[in-house]
């Protein structure tokens, strides 16, 4: 039997008397497109921070393709293929697009710490980085600084940088947040076309995006898994409507 791409067992985190992750069990299957939804304050960001190593759990286990990664830091998890984008852009705005992608490629190759020489000395890194930019039609902007780009294209660049890490599991934190609809379509089309070899968990408030994208949906409430199911099951669940979807979804 194939191991889940990502498996969470009994994950628990408290800050004093406040429990923010309450013995969570969760499984992300290989190649799946899975959405995590829930009201504000449900604990979604905390859960992702625990998965990616930003926070250390009080107890519980994080497994990546069957390997226990609970004790690894963020960089160690990333090197093994657990990669995340952020709700708020985390790019180097003073660097060019090419330089941003080169840093990601170099990190994956394990040579980022030695890149004190001009980038021109690293032809293979540059070639691979340009390949990623070309794949997402960003090659014409390769020499521009990130600050020169429209916000939607910055978010697209974030996905390119994440893919340059060669992820097995990709966590997308509201990838189209703050992006005009004319540009968000490009981002969503890119997500639709990502390789089936990559398991994707998308954290999203926009139900149109969730129901377009996800084959399976997990609902979090108050630091716990409230329910999980197919899009059809979640859409027809009166309990989910009560705690989260409400009238806005009905419309």
Brief sketch in words of this structure:
This protein has 251 residues and is of the alpha/beta class. It has 9 helices and 10 strands.
Number of contiguous helices: 9
Which homologous superfamily in CATH is the superfamily of the domain at 6-90 and 166-250? P-loop containing nucleotide triphosphate hydrolases
CATH class of the domain at 6-90 and 166-250: Alpha Beta
Beta-strand share of residues: 15-25%
Q: Please name the CATH architecture of the domain at 6-90 and 166-250.
A: 3-Layer(aba) Sandwich
Basic shape: globular
What is the CA–CA distance across the termini? 42 Å
List the uncertain runs.
none
Number of strands: 10
Sheet having the most strands = 6 strands, mixed
Strand/helix succession: EEEHEEHEHHHEHEHEEHH
Q: Give the strand order, joined by hyphens, for the main sheet.
A: 6-7-8-3-9-10
- Write the CATH fold name of the domain at 6-90 and 166-250: Rossmann fold
Estimated structural class:
alpha/beta
Average of the residue pLDDT scores: 88
Fraction of residues in helix: 25-40%
Radius of gyration: 19 Å
Please tell me about this protein's structure.
The protein is an alpha/beta fold and 251 residues long. Helices cover 36% and strands 24% of the residues. The protein is built from nine helices and ten strands. It has helices spanning 44-52, 74-79, 97-109, 123-135, 151-163, 181-192, 207-213, 231-235, 238-250, and strands at 6-15, 18-28, 33-37, 59-64, 67-68, 82-84, 169-173, 199-203, 216-221, 224-229. The termini are far apart.
